[in-house]
Amino acid sequence: MKLTGPFSQIVTLAGIPLKGAVKDEQIEIIPNAGILTQNGKILRTGNYEELKKEFSNAELEETDGKNVLLPGFVDSHTHICFGGKRSRDFAMRLNGKTYLEIAESGGGIWSTVTNTRKESQENLYTSTFENTQKLVKNGITTIEIKSGYGLSIEDELKMLRAINQVKNNSKAEIVPTFLGAHMKPRDFEGSNSEYLEILVNEIFPILKEENLSNRIDIFTEQSAFSVEESRIYLQKAKENGFEITIHADQFTPGGSHLAVEFGALSADHLEFSGENEIKALAESDVVAVALPGASIGLGMQYTPARKLLDAGVSLSIASDWNPGSAPMGDLLTQASILATFEKLSMAEVLSGITFRAAKALGFTDRGSLETGKLADFISFPTDDFRDILYYQGQLKPNGVWKNGEKL
Asked: Does this model's pTM top 0.85?
């Protein structure tokens, strides 16, 4: 048993609902506080001196100075396993080139596919592990990582095996997702449907056999896979017992309705979701995942986060860290920027990068500091939790704990 503290404030996020708008007044703040943990779980939070007196046999892990404690952050959507970079693409976008023009000149997703295919599994493991280390330093204790830059049987499996190597060696919890349906590869001569059929018949069994991923993602978009192509693929994923998430409504609506139809854990992007899409999501348990990094990288509109929350949707915010549209990879900075443009309360932002983000990955055991939850928490060097978003990601954690262990 261990007592960690004292903290100027513990922000528990207990009692906040999974869905809908949240006011800052709903945030539970415990002053002069401590947190009691055992076997990787939270036993109690409360006044530090009172806990110290009541649990006098507890091991003490004392903190110095002003510190605020929060639940560990969850990044529910990343593409941090890749080869190469795309700064050339970014420069072309700044000069007014369209996505299609960039792709035709050798850029776009296909350039990352080409570079990722060149990398060995070991090199992909090393670079992905380094990326997770950066996220952990920024307070991310649970990280989703997608494949999707191999786009061949051999290379998709190579990516997933590298991601699982990271899972076995990282202090953070890693959630691998199979995104072989990112786009039809240029060197595949058949149709979209034939490509998806190969993923189902040749990769799905190996995902199960090697326990590489229990999550299937697809990019449902006019430039990738149509709603009907996606529907057939997702039906087969569901029949095989996989959890589902969808890249939805990034440039055109449609994918979010599919997410609702299949009871997906999440619908991610949603920049082009309209009233019908928002209503459908609100009437479901699908978590809407906003990806402000992609909006910043592409210079496009943000996910309508305010409308989603006001309609009663559960909103997660994730980094979408990838080499093309969202190279920043700083979840807290992106969430702070989204808050200013969409007028989100601090409670809504913090909920969106903790327990609501966890729900987007199918977890209910983390994201708030409550008895029985995982002892995943982070501290910031301040005495006022509002400073964390106020400084827009420039105030960094000075302590990160996973399962009660300080990293």
From this structure: yes
